[in-house]
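A favour, since you know our structure tokens better than I do. Go ahead and set the record down below.
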Amino acid sequence: MTYTVGVTNLLGNGATGGAQVGLSSNAYLYVMLSPTNQTANAGANVTFSTALVGVTNALIFYQWRSGAGPLAGATNASLTLSNVQPAAAGNYSVIVTITTNTYVAPATFTANLQVVALGPILSNPQIMPDGSFQGVLLGKRNRVMFSKSPPT
């Protein structure tokens, strides 16, 4: 089967007579959707995803990586990171390999994760009958009770 396509270069100059592209029965056409950059609060779950559309007669393999190298067991189209902390911030990439009877170079796509560290959270704030203020500051590693008397 033969298709005719118009061919132009970056300047818009076209080839005369078009060009011919042959497709055999084992050919495939694909579109890769890259994972997107994400920003998450510390403690949140984050999912990076990629998608390969239009692939037929081929096996698809995924390997997710971080700056430290391949992530064990991360061999699906999606990668979920649970309870992310600031140390998890950085680049995450996926190497996608398509296995068919024609060589296709592996494709690598990278997305960045930013993790926003949460500061202390004020819990149970109360204004007491005498006008003083008290509450509890909940931090990552501590719990501090405090009170403030009104000015005299």
About this structure: The chain has a mean pLDDT of 76. The chain is about 0% helix and 50% strand.
